[in-house]
Give the backbone structure.
Amino acid sequence: MRSKKESYKNILTVIFSVISIGYVFPIVLVLINSLKKKTSINLNPFALPNAKSYVGFDNYLNGIEKIEFFKYFGYSLFITTASVLAILVLCSMCGWYVTRVQNVVTKSLKFAFIFSMVVPFQMLMFTLAKTADTLRLNTPVGIVVVYLGFGAGMAVFMFSNFAQSMPLEIEEAASIDGCNPLQMYFKVIFPIMKPTFVSVGILEIMWVWNDYLLPYLVLDIKKYKTIPIVIQYLKGGFGSVDMGTIMACIVLAILPVIIFYIICQRYIIEGVVAGAVKG
């Protein structure tokens, strides 16, 4: 029995190792090509850089200059930070409220949040774009409201499920000590929900930072662009594309999220499991 279990584990290890390589390979390929000449990428994109094809960091410097990288990096950073903070604070409050206050309204509200997770974005995108334009939400500040709406479904679901596992006695003791709802949230609930905060935060950051379609539909792209949008403008005349510069900009775009994910990855499973367990 033990040998069979060990064989089974070894087979699973091999399978998941191959799957992991499949996920990592595109990132490695982009990194390699970001250091090569345009012609070398077109002729042999899978080859490692050599003396003839290697250009160092020229592609990175060229991309930063061409698309005003740091300007649009600032827009992406602001939108991501503001959107994720709004989702974390407001959705955690909502998840705690709908869990502790049991009535028809809160049950219907929670059902609405869960239902929003299964509605395809394609059904809403044209109406959303028109509504955002009418309400003047086509700015970096306005799009935060749009992201809050789309991110609330999963966030409220995870926060409410985690709130069900929290002992009610802690909140009763805080109430006896004179805490009002806001004090109870920030002094008692907020620290207890830390695993779910980190988990939801990581998932939302990766979504908002890498999102292309929603900013493209909502933002006034003549004035504001995010990094995924501006990279597509690295095209020359007659459809020519400088692949080396594009690859370099892609590396610069994904690097912050990869670093953040590596630092915080141990909290993801902890937060997901904590949010899925009911008390």
